[in-house]
Structure formats: structure tokens, C-alpha cells
Amino acid sequence: MQIGVTPAHILPADIDETPRSGELPKPYAERMALEKARVVHQAKPDCIILAADTVVAVGRRILPKTEDEASARSCLELMSGRAHMVLTGVCVISPGGKTTLRVVSTRVHLKRLTPDEISGYIQSGEWNGKAGGYGIQGRAEALVSNLNGSFSGVVGLPLHETRNLLVGAGYPCPVGSA
Predict the structure, then answer these.
(1) Per-residue model confidence (pLDDT) at position 176
(2) Quick one: which H or E segment has residue 89?
(3) For 113-129, b where at least 16 C-beta lie within 10 A, e where not — what string?
């Protein structure tokens, strides 16, 4: 990892990721990161646990993690030519159970996308399983006209904040590794 951290274990947190009725994007990102961390902490209580979840929102609307071309196309059409928010919740639980949680918000503006650009991106397959139907670390970066916040947060893990949370939990992250 870019901050000098190599996980000892990578465990999936099998939780229900369905937003609650009326749940807003930021509380949803917080809840997802916290629930994932708690599930893994139960399995590995003697470890420092790091969990995260990324949410893409247009206004109060939480966009899905796209699983099919139609949902990816719908998300891209909705975000075309306008700004949206990418919120990444990051949670760290120490072996003693101390829990710290942060949400990093980034405003992303996509250029107005042509039907050919949307179709071309859909054909790439990079949208599959991605919140909001795109991955900024790939071809979609060329579709972003402006970004205000954390690029790494849009990718999925805001490195500055993650490093700070890990250091606060006692995990060694040497200055030269950041």
C-alpha cells in the first residue's frame, strides 16, 4: 500500500449494504464502514481493524454499486455534466475496542458525456461493482473535469486520513512511508 501498510489478513465483512429508508449519504457511509469493522473485529479482536466503504451521491440520492450495464449507464447519464459527491467512510478499531471513524467527502464534476463516451466506458467493463458506475483510477479519470477533495478517497481509501487513523491506533506508519 502507498502508506507502507501491508495487511496481515484481508477478511470480507458479509453485511447487508442496503441503505435504510430515508438514510442520507454521509450517515450511510459511516454506518457501512463501522458495521464492516465491527464484523471483522469480532473475528480478529486482537488486531487493528481497518474497514472502509465508498458512497457516490447526487444530492440526497445514494447511487448503487453497479452490477449491470443498465445501472451503470443510468448512473453515468445522471452524473453527466454535473457534480456529485464521493463519501468514503473509514473506520479503525484497536485491539482494546477503541473505535475511530472518519468520512472524507470529495466533490467530483464529470464533463458532459456524449452517448458514445458512455457506451465506450460501458464496453470497458470498469464500471462493474463500482459505486456510481465508474472507477476514477481507470479510463473514467479522463471524464472528470474537476475534483475537490481526496483523489485516493474517490478510488476507495483516503490515504492521508487512513494513515492518521492507523497511527492513532498505534500502528507504525513511518513518515517516509507516506
Answers:
(1) 58
(2) strand 83-93
(3) beeebbeebbeeebbee
| Fold (topology level) of 25-168 | Maf protein (3.90.950)
- The catalytic site residues sit at 53
Domain boundaries, the chain: 25-168
Which are the contacts of 172, defined by CB distance < 8 A and separation ≥ 6? none
Grid cell of 21 as nine digits: 429508508
Q: Identify the bridge partners of residue 124 per DSSP, sorted by sequence position.
A: none
Q: Give the residues across from 148 on adjacent strands.
A: 107
**What confidence tens digit (pLDDT) does each residue in 10-66 have?**
898 999 999 999 999 999 999 999 999 999 999 999 999 999 999 999 999 999 999
In whole angstroms, what separates CA 19 from the centre of its chain? 15
H-assigned helices in 1-67: 25-43
Return d(Cα 9, Cα 123) in angstroms, integer: 34
